[in-house]
Amino acid sequence: MFYNGDQEMPEEKTLRLSDAFENKEHRSDVELTVKVLNINHGHNAELMRQCKILEEYARFVDATKQLVAETDGRKEALESAIEYCIENHILEEFLRKYRSEVLGMLLDEFDVKKYERSLREEGIELGKASGEMQKLIQLTCKKYKKGFTVEETAKMLEEDTETIGRIYDAIKEAGTVDIEEIYEKYLMGETSGIPGNVR
């Protein structure tokens, strides 16, 4: 596998699937290993000498990264990088023939990165909301165990009775005060009204 990302990377690295396992003590009968070669410009000189196209590709990626970092407009930077590479005989024939396709692909690649960033941001927001709801469930469980009504709990926690009522129903449905289980029941709306055994 080739690597041309922005993080520091040795010339060559072996990745093992088992390194991604949370339980490091468990040994699998099967192991997947992948050799990763750093193809950023200036790395793996022998490989680059053996494959001129790969070496030119590495120089193209390097020029693209540099110009994008130095220029405000992405499209202008990418167009400049393509022009620079054509003038300096880097993937010249390919870039002359497929210039617009390469530019479109590079613009799409940057859009993908923007999309991935927005997904991470949404994930953080969802995580915060989930944490807040679990905290509310925890507080509600304490009131439930003490025998407070939905209305009393809602007033004490300054929440609406509908939300607290749904949490009470989830507690009864779950039959426990396990926060995560109640949270799942709350999210799924699985409230059949069967009294729980928690009280």
Describe what this molecule looks like in 3D.
With 199 residues, the protein is mainly alpha-helical. It has 2 domains: 101 residues, no CATH class; 63 residues. The chain has 7 helices and 3 strands; from the N terminus they run βββααααααα. The protein has a 3-stranded mixed β-sheet with strand order 1-3-2, with no helix packed on it. α5 packs across α6 and α6 crosses α7. The longest helix has 54 residues. The chain is elongated. The N and C termini lie far apart (58 Å).
Strand order of the largest sheet: 1-3-2
Counted by DSSP, the helix tally is 7
Protein structure class: mainly alpha
- The dominant shape is elongated
What does the radius of gyration come to? 28 Å
Oligomer: single chain
Query: Domains counted in the coordinates: how many?
Result: 2
